[in-house]
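Practice problem 4.
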């Protein structure tokens, strides 16, 4: 790890060394050179009629016989003094040349230190983005024909949650710990960089097979999946890892970097917490994403978007409490495109703002013909972050003619941790207008329990992953009991998603859930099918009248 303090000491030491050498040579050259030069001048001058120094008189005053100071002797003394002065000057010149060489070496040493620092991340001591590019270019240039080289890209999956929950100081300590783990895993035959934020990268050499580089990527993913202990706090983040191997996956740095990045984002799209090596299909997938993004921009105008509805039921499983509006994209050539594919595209491109507003207007318009049934509408974090979001949504709801108490706005935990105070103000704004607010996918975020008491939600939706694992994992049952108990204690309605079997319904009802949603009761359906579903429930033998449950 590069040590900035050590660099400061080296630079200060080198600067002091330069100053001392400069002063030393000035003293020698100036002192002795001037003395002997003046002596020579004095002797020559003394040889003339108006000399500056009368050496014979000086000798008599000193009690020395001055008869030996003949003209010949004076000339010899003068010539000797000049010769000594010349020798000193030449010696000083050679010393200055040697000194200059040492000075150049010292300056170069300082330049190397400064350049190294400029290519280092000051927090972790790893290479920064510029340093990584330089190391990668050098490694590719020096790679033997029969050698392989790996490029690994790493993105920390939940680092932002740590920063938002525990503060940037804790986040910085976590980054340092991650950097140290990467060093230990990679060993000496790797160059590691922090590209910025929560992204890291490696240049890996000295491996004999691509499988060794792939194994390193899987090891990194595994280690990042384990909790990090920072002080007394245990932090779980996970990491998405993408890999390429040269020359198989490319020989140019720009190609390798792009493909490592593609493979990393393929991991993120597939659920994160994995390591994948690049293959050509990933580039095909990227091209498809670009195609779909272009098509999505015209989907509203071409009337390709539809709103489908999935009912959610009261505890008896028979009475409809409300429906959740779910967006569907029916493409003329591609067929029905999954929301899991196009919603992320819409969020990344910013199209979600227009699409989200269109969805809300359509759902509210459809709600006018659904009696007292609640209408639950999801909003994206991208929408939520816009300054005009609350006023704009209240205006749309007010113009729709639907009673505010029938409208339910669903948000995820991610929007809460970005700016808690703003989120609280928005939630209170909705509730002040009589609109219900639900926390969706509860239990999947980082700070569920610590944040829940701060936010005035009307409903808590248990994430379907816990429900689907009932009977497979004892932990899921315990988590559901805890969530239900917590929600009820805070006066919230508890809503279970992902109910797919009778056993799920029985367990969740016994645990104390209020509302139930899932394929066991009904799949998402277009509006005409929803009307038929509602009518069938009304006419079912022994069915109770539909009523609103709070």
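Answer key:
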């Amino acid at each position: 790890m590069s040590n900035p303090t050590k660099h400061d000491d080296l630079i200060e030491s080198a600067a002091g060394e330069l100053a001392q050498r400069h002063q030393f040579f000035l003293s020698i050259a100036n002192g002795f050179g001037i003395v002997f030069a003046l002596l020579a001048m004095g002797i020559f001058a003394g040889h003339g009629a108006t000399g500056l120094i009368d050496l014979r008189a000086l000798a008599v005053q000193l009690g020395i016989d001055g008869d030996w100071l003949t003209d010949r002797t004076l000339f010899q003394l003068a010539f000797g003094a000049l010769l000594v002065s010349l020798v000193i000057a030449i010696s000083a010149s050679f010393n200055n040349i040697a000194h200059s060489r040492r000075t150049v070496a010292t300056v170069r040493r300082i330049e190397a230190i400064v350049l190294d620092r400029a290519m280092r991340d000051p927090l972790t001591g790893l290479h920064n983005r510029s340093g990584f590019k330089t190391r990668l270019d050098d490694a590719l240039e020096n790679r033997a024909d029969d050698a392989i080289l790996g490029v690994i890209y790493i993105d920390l999956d939940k680092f932002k949650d740590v920063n938002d929950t525990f503060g940037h100081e804790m986040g910085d300590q976590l980054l340092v710990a991650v950097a140290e783990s990467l060093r230990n895993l990679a060993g000496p035959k790797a160059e590691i960089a922090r590209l910025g934020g929560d992204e890291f990268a490696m240049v890996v050499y000295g491996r004999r097979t691509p499988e060794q580089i792939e194994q390193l990527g899987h090891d990194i993913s595994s280690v990042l999946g384990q909790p990090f202990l920072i002080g007394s706090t245990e932090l779980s983040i996970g990491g998405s890892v993408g890999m390429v191997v040269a020359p198989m996956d490319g020989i140019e740095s720009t190609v390798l970097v792009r493909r490592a990045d593609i493979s990393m984002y393929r991991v993120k799209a597939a659920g994160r917490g994995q390591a994948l090596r690049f293959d050509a299909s990933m580039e095909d997938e990227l091209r498809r994403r670009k195609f779909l993004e272009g098509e999505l921009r015209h989907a509203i105008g071409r009337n390709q978007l539809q709103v489908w509805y999935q009912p959610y039921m009261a505890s008896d499983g028979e009475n409809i409490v409300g429906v959740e509006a779910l967006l569907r994209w029916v493409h003329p050539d591609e067929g029905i495109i999954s929301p899991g594919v196009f919603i992320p595209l819409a969020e990344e491109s910013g199209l979600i703002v227009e699409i989200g507003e269109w969805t809300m207007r359509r759902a509210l318009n459809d709600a006018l013909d659904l009696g007292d049934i609640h209408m639950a509408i999801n909003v994206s974090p991208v929408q939520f972050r816009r300054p005009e979001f609350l006023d704009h949504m209240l205006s749309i709801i007010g113009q729709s003619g639907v009673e505010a108490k029938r409208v339910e706005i669903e948000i995820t935990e991610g929007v809460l941790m970005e700016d808690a105070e703003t989120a609280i103000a928005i939630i209170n704004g909705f509730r002040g207008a009589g609109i219900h607010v639900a926390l969706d996918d509860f239990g999947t975020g980082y700070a569920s329990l610590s944040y829940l008491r701060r936010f005035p939600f009307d409903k808590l939706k248990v994430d379907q992953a816990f429900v689907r694992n009932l009977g497979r994992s004892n932990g899921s049952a315990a988590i559901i009991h805890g969530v239900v108990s917590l929600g009820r204690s805070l006066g919230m309605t508890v809503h279970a998603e992902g109910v797919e079997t009778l056993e799920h319904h029985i367990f969740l009802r016994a645990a104390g859930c209020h509302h139930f949603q899932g394929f066991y009761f009904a799949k998402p359906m277009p509006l005409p099918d929803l009307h038929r579903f509602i009518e069938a429930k009304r006419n079912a033998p022994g069915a109770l009248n539909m009523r609103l449950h709070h």
